[in-house]
Predict the structure.
Amino acid sequence: MDNSLAKIHLSVDCTVLGFNGNRLEVLLIRRTGEEGGKEFHDMKLPGSLILDQEELDDAARRVLTELTGLKNIPLQQFRAFGSMSRTKDPKDVHWLERAQQAHVTRIVTVAYVALVKIGRTITRDLEGSEALWVPVDALPQLAFDHNEIIAAALDHLRNGAVTDPSVLYALLPRKFTVTQLRTLYEVVFGVKLDAANFYKKMTQMPYVVALEEREKGVAHRAARYFRFDKNAYNKTRL
Amino acid sequence: MDNSLAKIHLSVDCTVLGFNGNRLEVLLIRRTGEEGGKEFHDMKLPGSLILDQEELDDAARRVLTELTGLKNIPLQQFRAFGSMSRTKDPKDVHWLERAQQAHVTRIVTVAYVALVKIGRTITRDLEGSEALWVPVDALPQLAFDHNEIIAAALDHLRNGAVTDPSVLYALLPRKFTVTQLRTLYEVVFGVKLDAANFYKKMTQMPYVVALEEREKGVAHRAARYFRFDKNAYNKTRL
DNA sequence: AAATCAAATTGTATCAAATACAATATATAA
DNA sequence: TTATATATTGTATTTGATACAATTTGATTT
């Protein structure tokens, strides 16, 4: 009975993105596996199989908390990845079966993105542990189809930011300079923007509010800090 | 072993959207079920369980072809739906188990959207069959979480159309008037647009090309037909 | 056949936003 | 004290958005 259906395993994977002031980075987990008797090291997205009765969103939240120690980070599911060829690399299959203690032929994963402030994420749990930030434009070959998942997550971010630019402020520190904001726009949309015009445009937005505090220790005129005002932003949309 | 993992079934569901010249419609399937001895009728999205070894995208394509007879329609996966509460309605569980001949506690579905030209879709297979177009702003209560899936599909369409408006032309007939195009924009984005300004703006786009042919049989000045030029469009983006 | 209707299409004027780029200000470093 | 590197402000120009009046043209009505 029921044997026309695959024995499918289901997992979640989280693409945690951060902005280091210069480019986008993704949080990856070191993986140690074995291939033909030899040990190897590579990286993968933080993920986990879904537990019995566990909601997808809860599973994603669980993974994120276990990894970063952070809670209440908005996570957004954006796509499932379920190609048969996800498990075409024997390295991955071998690793999976050792980790799961079960025969795995097919694993469908539900992918999430989270946008975090890099500074606040690197808690003691992360230091020297198995997690690390890697620039998204310099990724090595990752486990499974994780390179593809990250590419899709970036695409999702870009699309989301067009409709609702407020998501970008989740990537900036609470206090940020206009230059940081501009660099973020440049890196997300892959464009070059005029600094002077961008400055005027953004600082006249009611939701980008100036603080008294200024940058310190830079070898030039210190930039003013701004913060994002969620309330003011929401008022700009109906 | 392996009993900490749920026995999960996996399916695909297709949200096939069309534009009837006035509003968006979605293609639904009539469903006949049984509840407490009484037969009932309602509607659901076209979907199917994934076959063994079948790619997700292939499953979606298969469903779409079986339903509409059309092939080569671009389908886009946009999200998985896997909440435990998807099967909270006993009606749905009962229906599933009768259809699947198996005990089903949890079914995760991978959702796709397809945009089609309504006129070309209604083939003989559809006439009098179990499929029908229903306006998305007048949907009854559907099976499972299909109302939610359709809402997400519309959201996905809106977001996609902001970044890449060319997707909208998949919803229009090959020859269309500017008024049809404008109504589509209005209905997708939920806004009212000035007819004169929209006309000038669109007809000056290099990818909206005027044809000689005009509308016939309308009780006023006949509108000119235009067509969408994919090549010209692509040249406008890098 | 002429007048009428309704929507298509064209015109024009105004206002707002995008862009270019010069000029000024101000932390630290030399 | 001057030099350097950005931050920030100014100004002029171009382009696009918006409002709305005017004209055109099939079909229908008189």
User: Anything to note?
Assistant: The longest helix of chain B spans residues 146-163. Helices of chain B lie at 56-68, 90-100, 118-121, 146-163, 178-189, 195-203, 230-235.
